[in-house]
Amino acid sequence: MAIDTFEMSNVWKRKQPKVKLDPHMYILGIINEKHHWKLTVMIPSQKKALLLNPLGESSADLKRCKESLHET
After folding, report:
1. Which residue range(s) make up the domain with 44?
2. Using an 8 Å Cβ cutoff, are 65 and 71 in contact?
3. What is the three-class DSSP state of 58?
4. What residues have CB less than 8 Å from 58, skipping those under 6 apart?
5. Is 1's pLDDT higher than 80?
6. Number of structural domains the chain divides into
7. CB-based contacts of 29: which residues, under 8 Å, 6+ apart?
8. At what angle do helices 5-12 and 59-71 cross, to 10 degrees?
């Protein structure tokens, strides 16, 4: 399931998304934060996530990705 950047940013910020997310599907989305783009793929049913940042992943981003995954 691919979701737009606004919805993925809401998931990233731990806000309630406006679309219903199926926890058994892959969730693919782009996060826009401070005019910088990051790609994330989440698999909530397996508690797995992948974060791709062209400038490198920080430990804070990895922690936030993990926390966002548990709330989906």
Report:
1. 5-71
2. no
3. coil
4. none
5. no
6. 1
7. 2, 3, 4, 5, 7, 8, 11, 39, 40
8. 100
